């Protein structure tokens, strides 16, 4: 479905050229969930935003490569042509729902606008579709949520709204850029489980941008690891998790914390117990 080949992206700054992405090649098959993993500054978000032409600055330049969506090179499209791809064929779930949603408008007005942009529906029909979209992502009391503003929703509810909006046109591919970073652990799992349900029930392929190998182990079929703008390792999730070849990959996996209450801690009163974090290679 998606094939990124030898992609390089440069940023032309006052201090010189920054090579943000260097000769990156990634594929995402139909119905596949691929993790794109790396620390901050590794180039993973730049890679994902380049797919839709959303780098957001004129100083960014694609110096080489191609991005094929079902055989069509997205890098050769105009912004108007890309506008027809965004939402309809590729949906985007951003990292911060607070920045993705407009605080001046209700959730309903924003969802109805997106639905009518992609579908020729009356406002009343678009409202009913918005209700169904929120029901699809497990939102309680959708009509009430459509009347609300973003500040009246919890973090998890806002993220469900963003996911619902990304799915209104039933895109075949979803770009999820760190969709759980701003959420607490319990809500993170709920959102990840929701994305898994969407993948299973709708067949939506997902490119999951994350720094967390815990997310990869929970939901990904395959994984690409980036460091300093380059791909250092990729393969099936099982292969990379159980037998990582690159030292950087091993360090990322070993940095996933595990909580264990040791025997010494158990011997002291509960109020004075301490959780010790240990790392497993």
Automatic annotation (TrEMBL):
Q: Which family does it belong to?
A: Belongs to the ABC transporter superfamily.
Q: Which UniProt keywords apply?
A: ATP-binding, Cell inner membrane, Cell membrane, Membrane, Nucleotide-binding, Translocase, Transport
Protein topology in the membrane:
Peripheral membrane protein
Q: Which organism is it from?
A: Dietzia aurantiaca
Q: What is this protein called?
A: ABC transporter ATP-binding protein
Q: Which Pfam family, just one, is annotated for this protein? A: ABC_tran
Q: In terms of one coarse class, where is the protein primarily found?
A: membrane
Which compartments does it reside in?
Answer: Cell membrane
Molecular function terms in GO for this entry?
Answer: ATP binding
Position of the signal peptide: none
Q: List the PANTHER family.
A: ATPASE AAA-TYPE CORE DOMAIN-CONTAINING PROTEIN (PTHR43297:SF14), OLIGOPEPTIDE TRANSPORT ATP-BINDING PROTEIN APPD (PTHR43297)
Which InterPro entries does the UniProt entry name for this protein? AAA+_ATPase, ABC_Ni/Peptide_Import, ABC_transporter-like_ATP-bd, ABC_transporter-like_CS, Oligopep_ABC_C, P-loop_NTPase
Keyword Calcium assigned: no
List each copy of the ABC transporter domain by range: 2-253
